[in-house]
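Hi L.,

As promised, Inner membrane protein YbaN:
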Amino acid sequence: MKALYILFGTLSLILGIIGVFLPLLPTTPFLLLTAALYVRSSPRLYHWLLHQKYLGNYIRNFRENKAIPLRAKIISISLIWITILNCIFFIAPYWWLKILLLLIAIGTSYHILSFKTLK
């Protein structure tokens, strides 16, 4: 079972890292999942994850404060809307797809804004 936890934790970590750069893929939930899987499988990997310079901050801030830094909120929401609007106006050929993309942008923005802001 430990090997599966490590495997899925590593996959979740990779998705979380990709999410830093890809606006529609959330970073924090994948990193929280990685932490949960690593704590059940390998204390060494869990310790390594929490003490990473950038990734560890995501996990610690969210676990301790249930909050997202203002800079991260601004960047996330800006990238989401830039990407979605680009798709709506230049890529999506069908009206139902445009509406779906708009609803995704609204939903993810609401989700991000529903968390407290870390100062």
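The first strand starts at residue 67 and ends at 69.

Thanks again for sending the construct details.

K.
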